[in-house]
Amino acid sequence: MRDEVLAELYKQDASIKQKINKADGYAVFSNVGVNLIFASVAGGKGIVVDRKGKEVFMKMASGGLGIGLGVKDFRAVFVFRKKKKLAQFIEQGWDFGAQADAAAQSGDKGAAAAGAATVLSDVEVYQITKNGIALQATLQGTKYWRDADLNN
Question: Residues 118-141: what's their mean pLDDT?
Answer without folding.
Answer: 74
